Amino acid sequence: WLFKGYFDLSVKDTLKTWGLLELVNSVVGLIIVLIISMVA
Fold first, then answer.
1. How far apart, in whole angstroms, are the C-alpha atoms of residue 14 and residue 5?
2. Where are the transmembrane segments (predicted)?
3. Residue extents of the structural domains in the chain
4. Are the C-beta atoms of residues 12 and 18 closer than 8 Å to each other?
5. Are the CB atoms for 3 and 9 separated by under 8 Å?
6. 8 pLDDT exceeds 60?
7. In the predicted model, is pLDDT for residue 37 greater than 90?
8. Contact 3, 16 (CB under 8 A)
């Protein structure tokens, strides 16, 4: 729970923030893969 320590968030907020980051990472990764497959 490093984030919880740094930002002093509740567990719910920590999970929400982490979930959001994971979602953004997934979307960005997907877009990059699509672009690469279109270019290749």
1. 10
2. 20-39
3. 2-39
4. no
5. yes
6. yes
7. yes
8. no
| Residues sharing a CB contact under 8 Å with residue 33, sequence separation 6 or more, in sequence order | none
Note whether 19 and 11 are within 8 A (CB): no
pLDDT at 14: 76
Structure tokens, 10 = 């509740």
Angstrom distance (rounded) from CA 20 to CA 7: 15
Q: What are the pLDDT digits (tens) for 10-31? A: 777 777 888 899 999 999 999 9
- Per-residue pLDDT at 4: 54
Dist CA 26 CA 32 (whole Å):
10
Are 1 and 14 in contact, with CB atoms under 8 Å apart? yes
